[in-house]
UniProtKB/TrEMBL annotation:
Pfam families: DUF397 (PF04149). The lineage of its organism: Bacteria, Bacillati, Actinomycetota, Actinomycetes, Kitasatosporales. It comes from Streptomyces triticirhizae. This is DUF397 domain-containing protein. Residues 9-62 form the DUF397 domain. It comes from the Bacteria.
Length: 71
């Protein structure tokens, strides 16, 4: 988990997460080949960084599930 320099990152979350700001995963721009992730409820909490390939695989899987659910 990253502990340094994450307060200056531009965090964003999905437009599907709604206005309540509830249980959301926030993501920042790629940082040295890694994708920083954090819990929106704990902005000052720990940050997990995953390799770009793992993030792309995760997003692709979620998008595939969403497309199947829309059929």
């Amino acid at each position: 988990m990253a502990e340094h320099g994450t307060d200056t990152l531009a965090w964003r979350k999905s437009s599907y997460s709604g206005a309540s700001g509830g249980d959301c995963l926030e993501v920042a721009r790629v940082h040295g080949g890694l994708v920083p992730l954090r819990d929106s409820k704990r902005a000052g909490g720990p940050v997990v960084e995953v390799p770009m390939a793992a993030w792309r695989a995760f997003v692709g899987s979620v998008e595939g599930e969403r497309r199947r659910a829309e059929r």
